[in-house]
Amino acid sequence: MDEESLFRDIHSHLMLQAREGQKMDTEMKLAERFNVSRYRVRRVLDILSRMGVVHRVQKRGLTLVSPEPEDLSKSIGSQIQSVGFNAMEFSEARDLIESAVLSLTVKRMTPMQLGRLSETFDQLERVNLAPLAALSIHQTFHSLFLEGCGNRVLQVFAAALLSECAQKLAEAGDNLPGSFVSEIISLDRDLLAALRAGDDEASRAALVELIDAEVAAAAAHGIKAD
């Protein structure tokens, strides 16, 4: 049995055991079941552990990991980072995914969520254009906007892309021009006003400008431009 087939079979077997509420097989049992060495099984389990699928505890065996949406976003983000997509791909992906999020957010955002968004924006306006502080609050603002869609699948993928851009911008730190921070604050203001009004078209226009500004700045500090 080749490595890919072994990985697929062990993964499927463990997921079936988890769904049926069974205790997951040990490394030794898996080796016996698939008639391979424990070394080969251990390599598969190491990969599954690094992927965040299972958790290995000495003398206690395997347990299935049930990650929170934030953990999934981080996992996806780390894989995106390792591939190194270019700025155009980031911009297109964010436009498509966050536009879908936006349509739901306009319909579903609760008054309480909108209140939290407003409070966060008030903090953003008080940071006096200090780049790192502004970026941190801006990311919180954007994360709250994503939560408003009520769809955790979309939220996970959108947050992964947002986090990658935010990391590149944070690395730039004080090298970011004040004009960029001013633009981000202005666009956040436009987005908030449109969400308050339930205006899907105005929200979308502000969001597209915001994404383009972020990706362009991130491209100058780490994301490939072509």
Automatic annotation (TrEMBL):
Keyword Transmembrane helix: no
UniProt cross-references to SMART domains, sorted A to Z: FCD (SM00895), HTH_GNTR (SM00345)
Keyword vocabulary terms for this entry: DNA-binding, Transcription, Transcription regulation
InterPro entries attached to this UniProt entry: GntR_C, TF_FadR/GntR_C, Tscrpt_reg_HTH_GntR, WH-like_DNA-bd_sf, WH_DNA-bd_sf
Domain HTH gntR-type: 3-64
Keyword flag Transcription: yes
Every GntR C-terminal domain range: 89-213
Molecular-function annotations in GO: DNA binding; DNA-binding transcription factor activity
One Pfam family this sequence matches: GntR
Superkingdom in the source lineage: Bacteria
SUPFAM superfamilies: GntR ligand-binding domain-like, Winged helix' DNA-binding domain
PANTHER family hit by this protein: GLUCONATE OPERON TRANSCRIPTIONAL REPRESSOR, TRANSCRIPTIONAL REGULATOR, GNTR FAMILY
The protein's name: FadR family transcriptional regulator
Organism lineage: Bacteria, Pseudomonadati, Pseudomonadota, Betaproteobacteria, Burkholderiales
